[in-house]
Specification:
The complex is a heterotetramer, with two copies of chain A (284 residues) and two copies of chain B (236 residues). Chain A has nine helices and four strands. Chain A has a four-stranded antiparallel β-sheet. Chain A is an alpha+beta fold. The mean pLDDT of chain A is 80. Chain A folds into two domains: 177 residues, no CATH class; 76 residues, no CATH class. With 236 residues, chain B is α/β, with parallel strands linked by helices. Chain B has two domains: 160 residues, P-loop containing nucleotide triphosphate hydrolases (Rossmann fold, 3-Layer(aba) Sandwich), CATH 3.40.50; 62 residues, no CATH class. In chain B, the strands form two sheets. A six-stranded mixed β-sheet of chain B has the order 6-7-8-3-9-10, sandwiched between helices. In chain B, helix 3 packs across helix 4 and helix 3 runs parallel beside helix 5. The N terminus of chain B is likely disordered. The chains are: A alpha+beta (284), B alpha/beta (236). Chains in contact: A-B, A-C, B-D, C-D. Chains C and D meet through helix 6 of C and helix 2, helix 3 and helix 4 of D. Bound molecules: adenosine-5'-triphosphate (2 copies) and magnesium ion (2 copies). The site of one magnesium ion has 4 residues of chain B, from helix 1.
């Protein structure tokens, strides 16, 4: 004979609250995933941009191979590449047209040397090296990223707003679901008190109930959310431009999203306990 | 038969002094009540419909605080009783509500077991055993697994009575406990109350049916215009 | 004496369902707004790209003013501008460094003529004009937009997914709220039937109740949503790059978002009616 | 006084042939019922607790379909009655439920007005007037605005009776209608039923209290072991 004094499992809210929590958790997870993925993508851009510099040499009588050799020996440099003339021409194509076939005399293209620095290394050594050679300019690839950074930043903001709205809605649902369960069970609760049940005894049942609903809903929403984020970012990285290479949440980001059900469950348990005890304490 | 009021051996189980009860801002439904229930006494509570019988019982089983006056229950002053200590007192009081108040999602058996379950002072097997015995006694052996919505009026009433007496309360309050059963079952239930009383339980039965007090002869508490008058019973 | 037979207004779900619907509508509105704004932004890019072509003239002895004159007279052309040499130099800066001060002989910059076509006009006239002049090339600005289009498309997809999840959740909430109200009111409904109320009489009450809740929730979520979209896109356009100029939903988009409460309300009414009648028809 | 069964002038108001009722897969609670209620008749329905009185009434007020057998109500065969026509029939039947079934969120007055409201055949002022009069008659003038949870047991019962008779039904079914009121009010309510009957309403009153039939002498329908036996009444 198993006696569950409160028919909370048959409470109508039990049937749909978990699914609302699940839907909200799904949205929250996707929004958070988007925000985190965009964050690490732009961080990636920033890193790539600051780790990578370009030496532009106005063609004259500079000995390019010697320069490459010199730069490669610097401690801060991890890789160096002298871009072939065709590649430089291709990069300039949108602006100058097909310059590859144009006479070198007519359009003397600069030589471009891509230098990748060791992570976090400074450019000061490199700058010192070229300080007295006016035909060499050092470019870092910041300027052209600015509009993209703007756009990504905006998208990230929207994602954060959506995630915040979703979390707020989850808390709202939990509070109201508990109150609604308590109202629906008012007669049962009254009776239990009259036959001598202590407030804590009753609160514990609501608490467990809230925990179960929220945990279920949180997991049922977050797991598909994680899967969606994983595949969406993977697909974007595979078929999108190189720009999207960093589009995946960081490890901390993944963990933060995965922790969502626990947070939701804790909020629900706490809310249920406080709500019930407050309502019960009102009278004898 | 014992009289109401303090008996020689100790203080009364329940004592009220100058108690009044009003609902919200309405007029006083109960006024200037002075009442003492001696341990082991048996009273009928009578009065017309709306006289305040159920209201007085709700004061006695601590589901309502009096609007004024002093009340002592089991030797405790209720005025300065902290809320967290009330549940323990309530467990020593059995109540048969006029409208039964069974939990619709539990079986008859589970409803009866509820007070033992809440008090948590007995293991499950022992509970099952006691419950089964009592359920049989009130003639609901066949309906033990049925839920209240599928029970007849009289069957519900018997479940309510079984739930009230299952924990051998020191004080038993019953509101029209035989209003929905036929005469034969009514007598059977009254025998149960008399037996419990002889084992020491103090009993108050509210009823509008004057034939009961006439038949059993326990003293009467009569409510009229919100005031209580004491009369000693007829027969017995 | 006003008799409202069903205590639907006191139904616990009445208290929180509108707020859930509001939260979901808010999310849905923001997501839709984002999707629509991105759509018109990229459409804008596309339009700019196809309406705008650039004539690149390898500098030689071409008479640029004459060419401009000639092109301006074509029917398809709405505006024409010969970009000054400084602007051309500035556009090339990331690639070639500060070429403005470089000797023209060393780096003979091409002349760039921006031509804006009338909306929808074809480039054939223009192409015919320059067909036999090999020093002039016609560029349209498509290639460099591709990665941005990719990124914006991805963001739009995420926005659509979120909007769809939100709409699904709203329907779910409506269905379950109606069922929950019906369960909570089961005894009242039974009694009404027993005293002779027809099924339609009862259904109408649930229907109205659902309509009110959903309409309220829909409006309470969509209005702030519209405001958020308006200010967020305006802010982005004001302080962002020129790229973001088109970042605002189209008129149809605004209307679609504003119609959200109506759609939600219709869904709710219909759901309530169907749910109630189905449950009632089960018996006499 | 009329007898049950077809009278000379027409067919009976309600006729049952070989009717049985079971709940779910349980045994038959009612078996082989043959019953005719002539227009204008008055019957008491008796039987022990759990005998099936309330179940039989639920068949009569069309809240349950019989598991087998034929039933005619107001000249309609209920077997091939489409569900959408049942509400109209129900409006001609007044019921006092054993457990009252009042709507807790409406005042006593609004509860009583409900059948007129649902039938939608009268304007609001007229409804108010009739309701007020009846409420006064059952002695609830002061409680007209009170909601059922704040009423005493007997007060609720009187609201339930007022609701059942407000629409002058052709058939009135009452389940223990005097179980919660004192004797004086019980007699008053019985006078109301007798009056309605004399105006043409057919009445069936279920009760476990055998003193009522003895006092009023209308014919008895007695349930035992799920079977119905007819007895003519005592006095009157
Ligand atoms: N919760 C409440 N709020 C307001 N008034 C109430 C409440 N409960 C009871 N009353 C009123 O108090 C009076 C006494 O009610 P009570 O239920 O005590 O009567 P009773 O003697 O038990 O009557 P009955 O024999 O009909 O059950 C009644 O007039 C009733 O309307
Ligand atoms: N909904 C139901 N489902 C299953 N069994 C039921 C249902 N309602 C009643 N019963 C059973 O049918 C039998 C007859 O019940 P009914 O309520 O008709 O009795 P009654 O004659 O009205 O009794 P009382 O005088 O106690 O009210 C009882 O044994 C009861 O348990
Ligand atoms: Mg009472
Ligand atoms: Mg019954």
């Amino acid at each position: 004979m198993s006696v569950s004094e409160l028919s909370l499992d048959r409470d109508p809210s039990s049937r749909f609250v978990p699914w609302i929590v699940a839907a909200l958790s799904l949205m929250c997870a996707i929004a958070l995933g988007t925000a985190f993925a965009l964050a690490s993508m732009t961080a990636d851009w920033g890193r790539a941009a600051s780790d990578q510099v370009t030496l532009r040499v106005a063609t004259g009588d500079t000995d390019i191979p010697a320069l490459v050799d010199q730069v490669a020996r610097l401690e801060a440099v991890s890789r160096i590449e002298h871009l072939p003339r065709e590649q430089v021409a291709r990069m300039l194509q949108p602006w100058l047209g097909d310059v590859a076939q144009v006479d070198t005399a007519l359009l003397p293209l600069p030589a471009l040397i891509d230098v990748r620095l060791k992570p976090g290394a400074s450019t000061s050594e490199l700058r010192a090296l070229i300080a007295d050679r006016s035909e060499i300019t050092l470019d870092s690839a910041d300027a052209w990223l600015a509009p993209l950074q703007d756009l990504a930043g905006l998208a990230r903001l929207v994602a954060w707003v959506l995630a915040a709205v979703a979390v707020g809605a989850i808390m709202l649902v939990t509070v109201f679901a508990t109150r609604s369960a308590l109202v629906n069970q008012r007669q049962t609760v009254d009776l239990l008190r009259l036959i001598g049940a202590a407030d804590g005894y009753i609160a514990k049942r609501f608490q467990r109930h809230g925990l179960r609903l929220a945990l279920f809903g949180g997991i049922a929403g977050t797991v598909p959310g994680l899967i969606v984020i994983f595949f969406a970012t993977a697909a974007a990285r595979l078929q999108g431009a190189a720009l999207l290479n960093g589009l995946t949440p960081s490890v901390a980001g993944w963990l933060a999203i995965a922790a969502l059900p626990l947070i939701v469950a804790l909020v629900a348990t706490f809310t249920a306990r406080v709500t019930v005890l407050k309502l019960l304490r009102a009278s004898w | 038969m014992q009289q109401q009021g303090t008996d020689g051996t100790g203080e009364p189980l329940v004592a009220m002094r100058n108690v009044g009860l009003r609902y919200g801002t309405g007029p006083e439904v109960l006024r200037d009540l002075d009442l003492e229930l001696a341990e082991g006494s048996f009273h009928f509570l009578t009065g017309r419909s709306g006289a305040g019988k159920s209201s007085l019982l709700s004061l006695l089983h601590l589901s309502r605080r009096p609007s004024r006056g002093l009340m002592r229950v089991f030797g405790h002053d209720m005025q300065d009783m902290p809320a967290r200590d009330v549940p323990v007192l309530r467990r020593r009081i059995g109540v048969v509500f006029q409208d039964f108040r069974l939990l619709d999602h539990l079986s008859a058996q589970e409803n009866v077991a509820l007070p033992l379950k809440v008090a948590n002072s007995m293991d499950a097997d022992r509970i099952d055993e006691i419950v089964q015995e009592l359920i049989d006694w009130v003639g609901l052996g066949k309906q033990a697994q049925a839920r209240p919505p599928t029970l007849s009026g009289g069957e519900k009433q018997r479940v309510a009575i079984a739930r009230a007496v299952i924990s051998s309360p020191r004080l038993l309050l019953a509101d029209e406990p035989t209003g929905n059963v036929d005469q034969e079952m009514g007598e059977r239930l009254m025998r149960l109350f008399v037996k419990l009383n002889s084992l020491g339980t103090t009993i108050v039965i509210a009823t509008h049916d004057l034939s009961l007090p006439a038949q059993y002869g326990y003293p009467l508490l009569h409510l009229e215009d919100g005031r209580l008058s004491h009369e000693s019973g007829g027969a017995a």
